[in-house]
Amino acid sequence: MIEPTLLGLCGSLRAGSLNRQLLAEARRHFGAATYLEGDLRLPLYDGDLEADAGIPAEVLALAGRIRQADAVVIASPEYNKGITGVMKNALDWISRVDGAVLRDKPTAVISANAGRTGGETGQYMTRACLVPLGPQVLTHPMVMVAGGEAEFDAEGRLASASYDSALARLMEHLRAAAVKR
């Protein structure tokens, strides 16, 4: 493998979200790679829609990007003590696509939140929702940026050496897992 392909999935649709900034930092720490970002602006999962029209084109495009990737990084906030609706909806749709596109795919889950836990409950819930899809989810170090508004500098870089170091280590592990595939 000359240059791995990294896919980023952001559980917040807002362009200026903390998790989009964290995803950019993860990409930087991952190093040289082809970078793809998954579009999670998908219709709400609906079994009737699937039965009538099949898997929507947007979902098939996302599944195609996942297939292309050697590794996946998910950056998602915690909303009301849980996984974001956007992320849950995307995982529900992905579970309906033939070929188990996430199975054994090296995957890192990271989060940034305004609160003091950095999205801990949302991250655990995201990890639980990934279990049936079978990715190889990295477990350490866990990156949960608390008080996120104060943790990024004017250029969008992580200001805290401890968060930056943990993210660098996690991305190093993710890259190693991707290269082994």
Short descriptors:
Rossmann fold; six-stranded parallel β-sheet; 6 strands; 181 residues; alpha/beta; single chain; 15% strand; globular
Short description:
With 181 residues, this protein is α/β, with parallel strands linked by helices.
Number of helices: 6
Proportion of residues in extended strands: 5-15%
Oligomer: single chain
Name of the CATH architecture: 3-Layer(aba) Sandwich
The residue fraction in helices comes out at 40-55%
Which radius of gyration do the C-alpha atoms yield?
Answer: 16 Å
Major sheet size, sense and barrel closure: 6 strands, parallel
Please tell me the total number of domains: 1
The name of the CATH superfamily reads: Flavodoxin domain
How far apart the termini lie comes to 9 Å
Number of strands: 6
Q: Quote the CATH topology.
A: Rossmann fold
Q: Low-confidence parts, pLDDT < 50 over ≥5 residues?
A: none
Question: Structural class per helix/strand content?
Answer: alpha/beta
